[in-house]
Specification:
The structure is a homodimer. By secondary structure, chain A is mainly α. Helices cover 74% and strands 0% of the residues of chain A. The radius of gyration of chain A is 21 Å and the shape is elongated. Chains A and B meet through helix 4, helix 5, helix 7, helix 8 and helix 9 of A and helix 4, helix 5, helix 7, helix 8 and helix 9 of B. Chain A binds a DNA duplex through helix 1, helix 2 and helix 3.
DNA sequence: ACATGTTCTGAATCCTGGTTCATTTCCTAA
DNA sequence: TTAGGAAATGAACCAGGATTCAGAACATGT
C-alpha cells in the first residue's frame, strides 16, 4: 500500500469538478447549448477533454447537472422571495418579477436554460426545475386561496400556466436573434401584471363554446 | 427532344411530395421528432430514402415544412373561431378552448409540434407559428380593449403570455411520459379561465417590489 | 529513491444517421 | 420500338462530435 487519496487530492478533485461545471455555464452563456461542445468546455475549464469524462459519465449528464445547479439557485432565490412576508398577491408579484428581472439580465444564459434545444438529459432536468418553480407558485396560489385573496381555482393548472406565461413572455424578447430590448421595465411589468390578474381576478364565467365541433 | 413533363407526371410528383409530408406527420405522431429519421419517413411514404431528397433539400427543411403545414391549419381553425361574432371575451375564450381541445385530442403530435426538441429549421418554423397564434390573440385583445371589455394593456406582451400559458398548461399533461389525463375537460377549462381572466380582469396595481436588489 | 496506485492527456476511434450518386426503372415523342 | 431524358433507388459514404485509452505525469508512504 503506497497511495491514499489525501484530503488535498480530494479537494483538487472536487475543485476540478466544480471548475468544469462552471465552464459549462460560461460556455453556454456565450455560445449556447448548440455551440457548446465538450472540447470547448474542457478548454474553458483548463483541463483536457478526457478529464471531463473522469468526472461525468457523459456530455448529457454534465450539461444536465450544470443546468440543475443554476436552476436550483434560481429556484432558491424565487422561493426566498415567496417566503417573505406580505399578502399572497404581493409575494406572487414579487416572485414573478424577480424571476423575470433576473432572466432579462442574463439574457443569453436565461434563454439557453429556459428554451434552447439541448440533449435529452438537459430537457429532463428542465422539466424538473420547471416544476420546481411551478411548485413555488402553486404554494403561493394556495396561500392566496386560503386567505380569500384569490378565487378558488386549480392551483396546479394555474401554476403551470403562470410558469408558461412567464417563460414565453420572456422567451421571444430573450432570443438571441431579437435585438436589444429597449424597455425592460415595461416588459417585466406587463408580464407581472398578466400573471397577477390571471390568478387573482374574480372568477370569470367563461362563455361556453358555441362553435360546433371543429372537424378535420 | 423526346421527353416532356406531362400533366400526369406533374401530378404524380406533387402527389409523392404530399405523401412524404403526410408521412412525416404520421411518423412524428408516432415516434416524435426524436425517433423520426428520414429512412422511416421514406418507408412510411412508400418511397426510397433518396427520393425524399429529390423533393426536399434536407431533413430540416422537410420537417419544418411538415410542421408549417400542420400549424397553419391550426392557425386557420383558431383564426376562424376568433373571427366569429360575439364579444371579444367570448371569442377569445373560444379560441383558447379550441386550441387546447384539439391539442389534447392529438396528444403525441401536439406535444411534438409545440415542445419537442427538433432540428433548428423546425424551431424556426415553430417560432413563426407561435407568433401567428399570438397574433390572433393579440387581435382579440385589441378588439376587447377597443370595446372597453378589456382594460388597457400591452396587447403584444399579453398575447405572448397567453400563448405561453396555453402551451405550458398543456405541455406537462401532453408529455409522452405523463399518464392518461383523466379530466380533460377540467384541464381545458382551467387553462381557458386562467387566460381569460389574465386579459379581462380589472387592472391590478401590482405591489411594488420591496425585496432589495437580489444579488449573486 | 522507489514501488504502487491515481489522475491527466489529447490524438485516434467510433457511431449515428443524414446525404450522395451510380445504376435501374420509367416516360415521352418520333 | 427505340432513343433521349427524368425520376427512383438504396447501399455506400461521410461529417462531426462524443467517447476512449495507452501512455505520461503525479501522489503517497516506506
Amino acid at each position: 500500500m503506497a497511495y491514499r487519496r489525501t484530503e488535498r487530492v480530494e479537494e483538487q478533485l472536487q475543485d476540478k469538478r466544480d471548475r468544469i461545471l462552471q465552464a459549462v455555464r460560461a460556455v453556454v452563456a456565450e455560445v449556447g447549448f448548440r455551440g457548446a461542445q465538450v472540447a470547448l468546455v474542457a478548454e474553458a475549464a483548463g483541463v483536457a477533454t478526457g478529464t471531463v469524462y473522469r468526472h461525468f459519465p457523459s456530455k448529457g449528464d454534465l450539461f444536465a447537472e450544470a443546468l440543475a445547479l443554476n436552476a436550483q439557485h434560481e429556484v432558491d432565490v424565487v422561493a426566498a422571495v415567496a417566503r417573505a412576508e406580505g399578502s399572497a398577491a404581493s409575494r406572487l408579484a414579487d416572485a414573478v418579477r424577480v424571476f423575470a428581472r433576473r432572466a432579462v439580465r442574463a439574457r443569453r444564459l436565461a434563454w439557453a436554460m429556459i428554451a434552447e434545444p439541448a440533449e435529452p438529459e438537459v430537457d429532463a432536468a428542465r422539466i424538473i426545475y420547471r416544476r420546481a418553480f411551478s411548485d413555488v407558485f402553486e404554494g403561493l396560489i394556495r396561500d392566496g386561496m386560503a386567505e380569500g385573496e384569490f378565487p378558488l381555482q386549480s392551483a396546479a393548472a394555474s401554476a403551470a400556466c403562470l410558469m408558461g406565461a412567464l417563460s414565453e413572455g420572456l422567451i421571444g424578447p430573450l432570443a438571441p436573434e431579437a435585438g436589444d430590448l429597449p424597455n425592460t421595465r415595461a416588459l417585466v411589468d406587463a408580464i407581472t401584471s398578466f400573471c397577477l390578474q390571471a390568478v387573482s381576478a374574480r372568477p370569470f364565467a367563461a362563455p361556453s363554446l358555441r362553435v360546433m365541433e371543429t372537424p378535420t
